[in-house]
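User: Working on a comparison across species. This one is SnoaL-like domain-containing protein from Rhizobium leguminosarum. Can you predict its structure so I can line it up against the others?
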Amino acid sequence: MTFGKSLFALVILAGIAAPAGAFAESATRDLKIEEANRKLVVEFYDRFFNKHDIAAASVVADDYRQHNPQVPDGKKPLISFFAGFFKDNAQSKAEIVRSAADGDLVWLHVHATNGAGDLGQAIVDIFRVKDGKIVEHWDVIQAVPKEAANKNTMF
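Assistant: Here's the predicted structure for SnoaL-like domain-containing protein from Rhizobium leguminosarum:
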C-alpha cells in the first residue's frame, strides 16, 4: 500500500473531506528523468555543501524559490548567503544519508555538522527540478540531541 492510498484510507475512516484529485495516482512516471533529477541534486549538494564550491550553483535557476525563511529567493542571494556561511563555518559538512525522487521532486535526508564535536542536525531537504535546473527548495531541520528516549539514531 502506498503512502497516498494509506493516507486516503485514514481520511475516509476519519470522515475528513479531501480535495478532489488529492489521492490520484500519477499517470506515468519517467524513471530516467527522476534519476537524472536525483543525480543533479545530489551532485549539486555534495559540491556546494561539502566542498563549498559556489560554482556548483550553476544548476540553480536564476528565479530559484526558497522556502527556508532565513534564505532569500533567487540564485544570487543563495550564493551570497552561503558564501558568507562557508567563510564563517569552514568545517561545515552535510552527509547525504539517503535520497529519493518522485516526478520533479528530490528528497535528501542529511546529517549536517559543523566540526568534529558537533552532533549536528538532521535535515530533510526537498528540491523541485525543472528542465535540468533546481527551481525550488524546502527543508525541515531538527537538532541531533545528546540523549534520546530510544536506541534508534536519527539516520
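For your comparison, note: The CA atoms of residues 71 and 77 lie 8 Å apart.

User: Helpful, thanks.
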